[in-house]
Design brief:
The chain is of the alpha/beta class. The protein contains 14 helices and eleven strands. 46% of the residues are buried.
């Protein structure tokens, strides 16, 4: 009877402390797909890894992969090469339905936490580029020295989508005498500084490390998207209208109209419910620690992180259990 009472006491204490699994649980392996160093997602991943180390059973391993971005992470998770990762609400919809960047349905994907931040499609030009507006960018395509992320990433898809709506292609820029480089942020930082690049198109969040560096090193201008372009991006591709607030980066002296979408932490449906519950709880209960690592997470609202419009996927049962226990999801 004493053993039974002791076991009951341990279980009750674990429940009161929100313990996700019984004491002595097997170590877990968590692999988080993020993006390359110099990006916000890599910093997010490192911050979540530090939080998880304090919540997972002893002997657990947490690894942050410096790959593969807003489009590729869903594929990595779908292939079982990672069990968690960052994605976007918009690309989650594409992946689940098997369209645009995805040639098959990734209907095994599940949501953990949505609305972690807002990513904006930004068009950033050097002030001496002679491109004061988006209309000028189209007309002066021969003067463009464009930098964007590697082909197939969410940032590159955003660039391609915007150029398509503007009626421009990469080939047309090159044929007119301009250039297009698909590369990483470290190269963009250097190329913008030495003048080999004068335009960047990317999806960025507040306090983005590389964009912050570029804006500090150069006189830059952030080009707003006109209302008709915003409307077309929404109608054709489901981008949401967004506004980058004045002061987000040096050189941004007024609000900048654009489009965007929120970051989502995702998993796969066959990842154990207990592990997903633990990960969800660790993220939601430690917002302050995450924001301390990167202020791009400042507007993350754990109480709303389950909402379909912020996730773009069905929730994993482990995540749903946490949100219902908190009373946030009815």
């Amino acid at each position: 009877m004493r053993r039974i009472a002791a076991a009951f006491f341990v279980a009750m204490v674990g429940a009161m402390l929100g313990a996700p699994a019984a004491l002595g649980a097997e170590p877990a392996e968590v692999t988080i797909a993020s993006l390359s160093p110099g990006t916000a997602w890599y910093v997010y991943g490192a911050a979540i890894a530090e939080v998880l180390k304090k919540h997972l059973p002893p002997g657990s391993k947490v690894e942050v992969l410096p790959q593969a971005g807003g489009v590729g992470n869903a594929k990595l998770i779908g292939q079982g090469k990672a069990n968690f990762g960052f994605s976007f609400a918009l690309t989650n919809q594409w992946a689940f339905q098997g369209k645009h960047a995805y040639d098959r349905k990734l209907d095994m994907l599940r949501g953990v936490a949505g609305g972690m931040d807002t990513y904006y499609l930004a068009v950033l030009v050097r002030a001496d580029a002679g491109i004061p507006s988006l209309a000028d960018l189209k007309e002066k395509r021969g003067k463009i020295a464009l930098g964007t992320l590697p082909v197939g990433t969410a940032g590159e898809y955003g660039t391609r989508n915007l150029l398509e709506v503007l009626g421009i292609t990469y080939d047309e820029i090159r044929k007119a005498g301009g250039s297009v480089a698909h590369t990483g942020y470290p190269t963009m930082v250097t190329a913008m500084k030495d003048g080999r690049m004068n335009t960047i198109m990317a999806v960025i969040t507040p306090a983005h490390p590389s964009i912050t560096e570029i804006a500090l090193q150069n006189e830059v201008r952030f080009l707003p998207l006109p209302p008709d372009i915003v409307a077309k991006m929404r109608e054709k591709l489901n981008y949401e209208p967004q506004t980058m607030p004045a002061g987000m980066f040096r050189g941004m002296d007024r609000d900048v109209a654009t489009v965007g979408y929120p970051t989502v932490f995702i998993t796969r449906r066959d990842v154990p419910e207990t592990l997903v519950y633990t990960v969800t709880k660790a993220i939601a209960d430690n917002k302050e620690a995450l924001v301390a690592a990167h202020k791009g997470l400042a507007k993350f609202d754990p109480a709303a992180a389950w909402k379909p419009e912020l996730v773009g996927l069905p929730l994993h049962p482990g995540a749903e259990r946490y949100y219902r226990e908190k009373g946030w999801m009815k």
